[in-house]
From TrEMBL:
Family: Belongs to the class IV-like SAM-binding methyltransferase superfamily. RNA methyltransferase TrmH family.
A GO cellular component entry from the record: cytosol
Classification via InterPro entries: Alpha/beta_knot_MTases, RNA_MeTrfase_TrmJ/LasT, SpoU_MeTrfase, tRNA_m1G_MTases_N
Organism for this UniProt entry: Sulfitobacter geojensis
Protein name per the record: RNA methyltransferase
A Pfam family: SpoU_methylase
Example GO molecular function: RNA methyltransferase activity
SUPFAM superfamilies xrefs: alpha/beta knot
Keywords: Methyltransferase, S-adenosyl-L-methionine, Transferase
GO biological process, one term: tRNA nucleoside ribose methylation
């Protein structure tokens, strides 16, 4: 087992008394999905190393190889400056309570200032005990269905890992998948609008005459509202040309 301290750029995820090796392995996969590779395991029920954990970890087995095995929680947190404890249940403890998103934002700020941060995850059956949470500086309250508050260990790890990754600079909140094309230019949209206006005028669409001007304005407005790609414009040109050819054949 590795006895290295927490790398300064990431928090440590601490699994407290985990019960099933499969869940430890699944948690390691969830961590590695989001670039987290510092795991600490406190008093696992079925001992350590655990073949079931290795089997479930798949490509994230390195995290298990480098995980730090700890006899108790004080040992696991000895080098930590700030600790979050995850829970889905109300606790009769006076502590700041964070959402998962804000907890990971706070973790980033503290890590950037040079602190070492850890996040605690409780055993599968009942979660963290109050004695565990008493050792934490803050609580992360996971919003779940109050009628079914039980959250799988690996799912909770995945949730926190996602929020950690989401707060980083590499996550794009929104982007358009253009499938190899580009957005149409104003000139291309104008040409398309003119093409349709001319063909529709030939077809007698703009009727009656006193409504022609407003109908053309509405049509132009429709084109300007549509987020058209160059591929869209080419297809719409082709559709109109084909309809005109079909009419002329008749």
């Amino acid at each position: 087992m590795s006895d290295t301290v927490i790398p300064p750029a990431i928090p440590a995820f601490v699994l407290v008394r985990p019960q099933m090796g499969e869940n430890i392995g699944a948690a390691s996969r969830a961590m590695w999905n989001f670039g987290l590779d510092h795991m600490r395991i406190v008093a696992p029920r079925d001992g350590w190393p655990n073949p079931a954990a290795v089997a479930m970890a798949s490509g994230a087995g390195r995290l298990l190889d480098e995980a730090k095995l700890c006899a108790d929680l004080p040992d696991a947190l000895a080098d930590c400056d700030f600790v979050f404890a995850t829970t889905a249940r109300d606790r009769d403890l006076t502590k700041p309570v964070y959402s998962p998103e804000e907890a990971m934002n706070e973790a980033r700020k503290r890590i950037a200032s040079g602190q070492r941060v850890a996040v605690l995850f409780g055993p599968e059956r009942a979660g963290l005990e109050n004695d565990d949470i008493a050792r934490a500086n803050a609580i992360v309250s996971v919003p779940v269905n109050p009628a079914f508050a039980s959250l799988n260990l690996a799912q909770c790890v995945l949730l926190m890992g996602y929020e950690w990754m989401r707060g980083g600079d590499g996550v794009v909140a929104h982007e358009d998948g253009l499938a190899g094309t580009q957005w149409a230019s104003g000139q291309e949209v104008e040409h398309l609008a003119t093409h349709y206006e001319e063909r529709m005028e030939d077809a007698g669409f703009f009727y009656p005459a006193h409504k022609e001007s407003s109908m053309k304005v509405n049509l132009r407005n429709m084109w300007s509202r549509m987020p058209l790609t160059r591929a869209d414009v080419q297809m719409l040109h082709g559709m109109m040309r084909q309809m005109v050819r079909w009419k002329e054949r008749d």
